Amino acid sequence: MKDESNGYEAIADRFILERAKSNIGIATVQAWAKTFQKQGSILDLGCGNGIPISQIFVELGFDVYGVDASAVMVSAFCQNFPQTQVRCEAVENSRFFDREFDGVIAWGLMFLLPAETQLLLIQKVAKALVPGGRFLFTSPYQICEWKDTLSGLISCSLGADGYKLALSTVGMGLLAEYSDEGENYYYDAIKL
């Protein structure tokens, strides 16, 4: 049976502890959250236990939804944010709560997925965004493969040109690319 959590179910407790020690990406995501004119709805894909990414949006008053394929992570998310909706399912199989969102974030998720699944996810996100909705995700700017340090599984990046093409194919445009203090590379896209 395929592990839909990409190895993160087995290391969930370790991941939660490690992520709690790190502030990497928080300032970048906070700045992105402030670009929204209204405090709308945000979908956090690969939300984990919700700390710190979902927490940022909850604290700013957004209507937050989470999806993660690890039951341990989702259980921790429910404990951290009991009033927030979360589903335990693989993002590629999720129906995204059968609704649209002002923003979708996938911090530390895209590159864990096979290339074809990343392309499928970009299509699904485009359909789930309202016109003018934004999609922020992280993945290296170069085309590459490597072994994920936590799960030990192979990760891959489509590279900046690959992501730009995938986004444009589904009616999205890339607003900006940037990196944070942890050298995470961000793609900030908008539904046209």
Which helices and strands appear, and what pairs or packs with what?
Blueprint: H1 12-20, H2 26-33, E1 41-45, H3 53-59, E2 63-68, H4 71-80, E3 85-88, E4 101-106, H5 115-128, E5 129-138, E6 143-147, E7 154-158, H6 159-169, E8 172-179, E9 185-191
Parallel strand pairs: 1-2, 1-4, 2-3, 4-5
Antiparallel strand pairs: 5-9, 6-7, 8-9
User: What helical percentage do the residues reach?
Assistant: 25-40%
Q: Report how far the terminal alpha carbons are from each other.
A: 39 Å
Query: What is the CATH architecture term?
Result: 3-Layer(aba) Sandwich
CATH superfamily: Vaccinia Virus protein VP39
Radius of gyration, taken over Cα atoms and rounded to an integer in Å: 15 Å
Q: What fraction of the residues are assigned to beta strands by DSSP?
A: 25-35%
Strand count, sense and barrel status of the largest sheet are: 7 strands, mixed
Category by helix and strand content: alpha/beta
Walk me through what this model shows.
By secondary structure, the protein is α/β, with parallel strands linked by helices. The chain has a single domain, classed as Rossmann fold (3-Layer(aba) Sandwich). Helices cover 31% and strands 29% of the residues. It is built from 6 helices and 9 strands; from the N terminus they run ααβαβαββαβββαββ. The strands form 2 sheets. It has a 7-stranded mixed sheet with strand order 3-2-1-4-5-9-8, with helices on both faces. Strands 6-7 form a two-stranded antiparallel ribbon.
